[in-house]
Structures are given as structure tokens and as C-alpha cells.
Amino acid sequence: MKRSEEDEFREFVGNRMERWRRAAYLLSHDWHMADDLVGTVVGKLYENWRRVAAADNPEAYAQRVLTRAWIDERRRPWRRERPAENVPDPGWSPPDQVGDRERLIGLLSALGRRQRAVVVLRFYFDRSVEETAELLGVSAGTVKSQSARALEALRALSYASERPQ
After folding, report:
1. What is the pTM of this model?
2. CATH node for 97-162
3. Which of 74, 94, 136, 149 lies 20 to 30 Å from 53, alpha-carbon distance?
């Protein structure tokens, strides 16, 4: 965006920001949501400023963006969540760290050498795919496939060991 276009954008937004915020509040009945909606509108207007500036009625364009942003926000699934009065008891106690360590060692020993090395480097030492590949002398694709297979095997082994006999 050119400097003159940016100045024009800033003036347009600056003159209308409070009005948009009040309109967003009237739609959402929540000042925090109103601020989020206005932020979304400003971002979308900035991305499409040339189209907005060329529109016959930029104010109507902005209002349409605001209304659609509110409708989109209302459709988000997390908006339908409601807080619970009482948090249910999870039914578990803190893990036994010694037992967990032994179980982890047992699960890792069930993996092949390469998969075990990939899992330890990637998830214990927090190495990137590229770093792990370089350390093991293999390609990044090999690291990705070996880690995916290893995690799948660990999940299956863990699930099998948790099931009642």
C-alpha cells in the first residue's frame, strides 16, 4: 500500500472507529466482542483497501464487513459452550512418576532403534525435524514418517496396556 493510500485508510478508520464499536456492541451486547469485531473489520478493510476506496459507498462496505464478521463469530462452535456450575471430579489422581517412568521405558523399548531415536530426539530433547534428520543422517521425510509410525505404535501399545485383562 502506498503512503497516500495508507494515510487515506487511517483517516477513514479513525473517523469511524467509535461508531463501528458502538454498532458492534449493539449487535453483540458485549464490549469485548465489539472490540474484537472492530479489529476484524479494520484488518479486512486494510487487506482490501483499494477495493474499499473504489467502492461507491465505502461506509456501507465497512458496515457490511462488520455485520458479516458478527454473523461469522456467532456461527463459531465455541460460542455455544457454556460454563458448568460444578466441575466434575476427573476420577484420577496425580500419576506415579516412578511407575510412569518404567512404563515409558517399557513402551520405548518396544519400538525399533530408529523410531526410538526419532521419538527421543524430537519429543524429549525437543529437536526440530531438520535437526533430528541431521543428527541421524536421514532425510526430513524419514524423520516425519518414523515419528508418525512410532507415535501410532506407542498409542496402540499404551491403549493395549491400559485395557483390563
Report:
1. 0.47
2. 1.10.10.10
3. 74
Q: How far apart are CA 165 and CA 160, in angstroms?
A: 9
Could you read off the pLDDT of 16-66 as tens digits, one per residue?
A: 999 999 999 998 888 999 999 999 999 999 999 989 888 889 988 999 999
- Calpha distance 143→150 (Å, rounded): 10
- At 123, list the grid cell: 519429543
Helices 140-162 + 97-109 axis angle, to 10: 120
CATH classification (class only), 3-79: mainly alpha
**pLDDT per residue as tens digits for the range 124-162:** 888 899 999 999 999 999 999 999 999 999 888 887 766
Q: From CA 87, how far away is CA 15, in angstroms rounded?
A: 46
